[in-house]
Batch of 2 targets.
Target 1
Amino acid sequence: MTTIPPWSYSALSCFENCPKQYFHRYVLGEKEPETTVTKHGIEVHKALEERLKDHVKKPLPEAYAHYERLAGSVEKAAEGGLLMVELPLAIDKFFVPTGFFSNNVWGRGKDDIVILKGKKLWTGDWKTGKVRENSFQLKVFAGFLFKLYPQVEEIHANNIWLQSGKIGDSYKFLRSEESSIWQEILHKIGRIETAFEKDSFEPKQSGLCSFCSISSCPHNRR
């Protein structure tokens, strides 16, 4: 059986959308072609990272200067606490924190913004697309953060929608809910493990097929 690669929110989401696409992206390692949309997303995230990191504090490029209000709001919210940007999150199969590229890494991800204040923590995720609220990515981050920061009892989370310049819905995760968070994540991981056991990654048709670059898929519309 092929070794299962470390999972992430992106991998879980990809498998949910289409197991065949997951196999090509995460098992065969086929990179998704860069588009103007993905290039823009990468550039925006990099600009905001450099704007907020303590040792950089690079002003936003003119093209993204209109995001300064949101960046300033994050800095203000972080006063009296610890602000972390593009924070690597990684655990082994025993839920113990490990290195992002360690041989024993089981699950990993990168959190756009984390503000730690004692037993409370806030996390935010920059979103460059249209507003489509989904709490699961933030829930995955919360699962990781509860493992990385055992003193934290309460996590607040928001998506930050850059096109509209607005903070999305607020989500709250409590330490007492940690087991249920991981049950949901493990259920999705289990579906991937079953696919590996059966060596079956069937294509799944959806509205996203027109954007997919897997030419060998019968549902490819390109």
Target 2
Amino acid sequence: MHRLKLAGQVGAVGLVVALFGLLVWKVVQEDKSNVARSFEKGQKTRPVDFDLERLDRDGSLQLSSLRGKVVVVNFWAAWCVPCKREAPIFQKAYEDYRGRVEFVGVDTADFTGEARQFLERYGVRYPNVRDPDTSVLDDYGGLPIPRTYVIDRDWIVSGYIYGETREETLRSAIEEALAT
């Protein structure tokens, strides 16, 4: 009987230690800096560079290759319902701002075939890359998506849209970046 009581006490202490460890891990993860969190705190935020495989053609695209230009970066996935609704908005903005603004779509957590079908279905013609393990998305704020960032010519994030993008919100963020 004494051994059973002792085993119960050891088990309870072990559970408390495990829960404490989980709490510490959660706090550390929550405190992890990312582009969205820095922007929301009002900090001068630079985009995190990436070099990802392209979906729209062979090769890769490195975000920093667009430095000095206004850039719109949109994180999306084929399974994301708001992403489906906003895809035509991004395509139209791409057409309207062609030559003045670069657009980059970042497909995340999809299979390549599903992502390419999405681009075809919604007539998306601007560059799109693939972030299969969400590592780049995590640097920008993580799930849920969609998330959109506007980067000005000075390579500062000047706009951040969390959730489904509305046309007027996107255009306003682009115009603000173009004005700097």
